[in-house]
Automatic annotation (TrEMBL):
GO cellular component: plasma membrane
Name of the protein in question: UPF0114 protein G4Z14_14360
Subcellular localization(s) per the UniProt record: Cell membrane
Keywords from the named record: Cell membrane, Membrane, Transmembrane, Transmembrane helix
Transmembrane regions listed in the UniProt entry: 20-40, 60-81, 115-135, 147-168
Primary localisation category: membrane
UniProt topology in membrane: Multi-pass membrane protein
Family from the record: Belongs to the UPF0114 family.
One Pfam family per UniProt: UPF0114
Recorded superkingdom: Bacteria
Amino acid sequence: MAEKPSLEARFERGLFASRWLMAPMYLGLVVSLAMLLVIFLKELAYYAPKAFSLTADQGILAVLTLIDLSLAANLLLIVLFSGYENFVSKLEIGETADRPDWMGTVDFSGLKMKLIASIVAISGIHLLKVFMALGKGEAANAPGTDTLRWMVVIHLTFVISGVLLALMDWLTARTDKH
């Protein structure tokens, strides 16, 4: 095979090396994960002392808030690990017992599906919290009818988008590779 001209080879090496421009963005996501941890701990510190005085519904809403933050953090980890491994460099951390099974195996298609599933779950939890508040006469703090309608429409848009992405991936997997 003939060698490429020197200028073209250097250009391609530089182009390939440009993937490292994403590394600071992943570092920023680590900082974002720490921010979510602070918010989680702040919410936990707020609700924990009230555990004995909360009603069942208030307790469920508190737990849903913590689950919501946890799902957002999980989503951030998935993007962080998978994005870095898919677009920058493989993580050379060895085979430890703590290594998640999906690490190194989530491709761009899998990442899309995990992202949309997490977004649907987060949106659903938020919607559930609003509905629970409405059902307990806390309508004064609840969003108006138009806002609630838009929240449902947006949630359904996420759900439909997830189904369509899954359908596209399924169709792509069934077609012959060109």
